[in-house]
């Protein structure tokens, strides 16, 4: 059995809240304890919803995440594989990871993973269209949220500490929203990223090796091949 912490308090009806959040992933939590999968009449998974204190004695239980952009613990969704394993339901696992944002634990041996972690990235590879895992690992793409300001401030601080000057912008997009600001120096010329060192313009590639830590989803925990966690 697997316990997925749901860091979203306050929530009046946790089952309904989680079920609604899982809809884009093709799943729902039925009224009778069954996990409903779009396009299938039955699958081999059952669930229950537990309160926030039910696992208080477990070593991995936390009432509040270290990440300041994750809400308090609202409760747990426990998934019991009956005749199928969770390996066969990656979208369900992804949905519970992204929407729950909390600890994911095996109840049989207390092994636990974190949906959100302080992760380290090489800035050189993150400030383009497909950076930060195409933007997917960011907790939100909404530029009006405090999270966006925190990520931008962390990236800017890391770049300045390495001796560079650069302007970054957060632009709404379905890809990575954090980019290096660019400008057109010559009429009809190419857009060139604004990266400077000692007053001289340099290529973005010069940022290679500059590292930053940001709060982000850790999708590595979904890796079916890493170990037998999901089996």
Description:
With 231 residues, the protein is an alpha+beta fold. It has four helices and 16 strands. The protein has helices spanning 14-22, 90-100, 131-134, 146-161; strands at residues 2-7, 27-29, 35-37, 45-50, 73-81, 101-106, 112-114, 116-122, 165-166, 168-170, 178-180, 182-184, 191-193, 195-197, 200-201, 211-217. A hairpin with a 5-residue loop joins strand 2 and strand 3 (35-37). The chain is elongated, with a radius of gyration of 21 Å.
Structure characteristics:
alpha+beta; three-stranded antiparallel beta sheet; 4 helices; elongated
Order of helices and strands: EHEEEEHEEEHHEEEEEEEE
Number of helices: 4
Report the average pLDDT across residues: 91
Number of strands: 16
Radius of gyration: 21 Å
Cα-to-Cα separation, first versus last residue: 10 Å
Secondary structure layout plus pairing:
Elements: E1 2-7, H1 14-22, E2 27-29, E3 35-37, E4 45-50, E5 73-81, H2 90-100, E6 101-106, E7 112-114, E8 116-122, H3 131-134, H4 146-161, E9 165-166, E10 168-170, E11 178-180, E12 182-184, E13 191-193, E14 195-197, E15 200-201, E16 211-217
Antiparallel strand pairs: 1-5, 1-6, 2-3, 4-5, 6-7, 8-16, 9-14, 10-11, 12-13, 14-15
